[in-house]
Amino acid sequence: MSGDNGRFATGVPGLDAILGGGVFDGGIYIIQGAPGAGKTILGNQICFAQAAQGRNALYITLLAESHARMIGHMRRMTFFDEAAIPDRMSYVGAFKTLEDDGLRGLLDVVRREVRTRKASILVLDGLITVHEKARSELELKKFIHELQTQAAFSNCTMFLLTSAFDADAHPPEHTMVDGLIELQTSLHGRRAERSLQVHKLRGTWFMGGKHSYRITENGHAIYPRIEALLETPSVWDSADGPMVSVGIGGVDKMLGGGVDTHSVTVVLGPSGSGKTTAGLQFLTGGPANEPAMLFGFHENPMALRIKADSLKLPLKARGEKVTLMWRPQTEAVLDEVATELLSTIRQNGVRRLVIDGIEGFSKLTDEKERIGSFLSALCNELRALGVTTLATAETDHAGMTPGQPLKGVNQTGLSAVAENIIALHLAALRSENHRLMTILKSRDRRTDMRMRRFEILDGGIVLDADFQSAERILRDISSQGPAPTPSTDLKLTGE
Amino acid sequence: MRTVLIVEDEWAIADWLEVLLSEYAFNVLVAGNGREALDILHRDTPDLVLTDFMMPFLDGAGLIAAMGQDERLSGIPVVVMTSLLEHVVRDRAGRFHAYLRKPFREADLMRIISEIFPGEA
């Protein structure tokens, strides 16, 4: 429904945030994109969203698919409402009128139909046909101008759909309309990614750049770039309160009593070093009634429950207070995943979060330069939401290099977002692998940075009381000669 | 030769019906909406009207209502061709002879016409 400022939300998830709140009553907007970009679905989705609010919507087609086929396709969409047709949502064809009577005839159809149907939303599907029918650029400009006048006088917001787009061209109608929204599909390797870009929006701020979108049975879901959406956190951070236990007694002591509430702690380590175990301990280490969540890219909820059971961690006992969210890195979209994560956190009031495999975010996009600002925005929002976070990140096995136990530990991109960094190592001494842990960073706190040996037993990670055994292991490794060269180097930022 | 008036705002459907019914030896008239149909009905009296429901200027319900008020036209059988559900059409339109859900096939249309003109289609 229209707001006090003469704007209304389109009702398309994510789009209104990008449009700075929605579109203006009586405005005229072009939605353009190649065939298959989803213009028709978007047009219908906007119409049905408004019809659901009690407004009347009109969909006029020119050279488009038949109404029967279009309605048949839309029936599969959850936004489709059969009961809205034909009173609140109607379809009419106007190609023959355009062909016989030209642009003037089409304007007459629009004027009469908007008035008789009391339409406050109009979609004109096939602007390119009008373009082709216009005898001159001036005639097209006059058509758009008269359409603008009609839109303003009838207070009907109009969306003109067109497949025409040439990034270097500047069709005359682009300079005249109130907004220009483009739907694009680009290939990344063999993977196709859809994105939406607002090129122009009169009278309001809008979120520039490209934003990913998906089309599902729910229609369009648009995911504003997280670093743009959360340029500043949605609420003010109030990082006060007691220190938070990481759930591993010895580590709390090394950290000077735990971590700050609403802070981000990163646990780095190679595969098999105990990162997920540390995460599960953190997850179950808070008060029993505190909402907690583990978000991971690798292990599914069943595997995590089995692991927690085998470690005798009280995951099962926490019941619905703990959410396990698994998002495999298949065809996922970076901003979609982050949006879902934040949405679940808000919905469940999560206060304690584990992100298992934070480097997974970088694998969801080819735009590696985004990751630093993406993680920064995400972590700032987590702090603002009052969430204390422990994130794990995988490193290579270079920590076995004698005398250089931290070699290969790539912190790039993490130091800026994490208050605390804990590194886990696997140290090979003769036939035996030892697990070692150290604190690399602990913001504003006196920290015991000496290494500790640890084991994974019932209850999870158990640290040695002091650094003596860790020192002995490292000394013996130094005396046994060089270790094998690591074969992999997984980096978080792709730099 | 029977005359059929097609009332359809989607030109491609109107064209297809015109060609199809001509092949079945009907005399075919075509209107792009209910208003154009009434113009034709002022001068011609077809044996059958095939009409879409959602159209510009005058929709199917308006056309059926206007025909019902004219003694000369009220007896002409009307077939409504639409994507809308039948009860939606029946709630909004007066009397019509038959309902044909879009998209339909040639056989569906010809079955209804043969019921209206037994032994002719």
Write up this protein:
The complex is a heterodimer of chains A (495) and B (121). Chain A folds into 2 domains: 218 residues, Rossmann fold (3-Layer(aba) Sandwich); 232 residues, Rossmann fold (3-Layer(aba) Sandwich), CATH 3.40.50.300. Helix content of chain A is 30%, strand content 25%. Chain A has 14 helices and 20 strands. In chain A, the strands form 3 sheets. A 9-stranded mixed β-sheet of chain A has the order 5-4-6-7-3-8-9-10-11, with helices on both faces. In chain A, a hairpin with a 2-residue loop joins strand 19 and strand 20. Chain A is elongated, with a radius of gyration of 28 Å. The C terminus of chain A is likely disordered. By secondary structure, chain B is α/β, with parallel strands linked by helices. Chain B is globular and about 30 Å long. Classes of the chains: A alpha/beta (495), B alpha/beta (121). At the A-B interface, helix 3, strand 5 and helix 4 of A face helix 1 of B.
Low-confidence stretches of chain B: none
Number of helices of chain B: 5
Rg over alpha carbons of chain A: 28 Å
Q: Note the overall shape of chain A.
A: elongated
**What is the domain tally of chain A?**
2
**CATH H-level superfamily of chain B:** Response regulator
**Contiguous runs where pLDDT drops below 50 for at least 5 residues of chain A:** 486-495
What percentage of amino acids of chain B are in beta strands? Answer: 15-25%
Main interface by residue count: A-B, 24 and 20 residues
Number of strands of chain A: 20
Record the strand order, biggest sheet of chain A: 5-4-6-7-3-8-9-10-11
- Succession of helices and strands of chain B: EHEHEHEHEH
Proportion of helical residues of chain A: 25-40%
Question: Which class best fits the helix and strand makeup of chain B?
Answer: alpha/beta
Q: Quickly count the helices of chain A.
A: 14
Cα(first) to Cα(last) distance of chain B is: 11 Å
- CATH C-level name of the largest domain in chain A: Alpha Beta
CATH superfamily of the largest domain in chain A: P-loop containing nucleotide triphosphate hydrolases
Radius of gyration of chain B in whole Å, from Cα? 13 Å
Secondary structure class of chain A reads alpha/beta
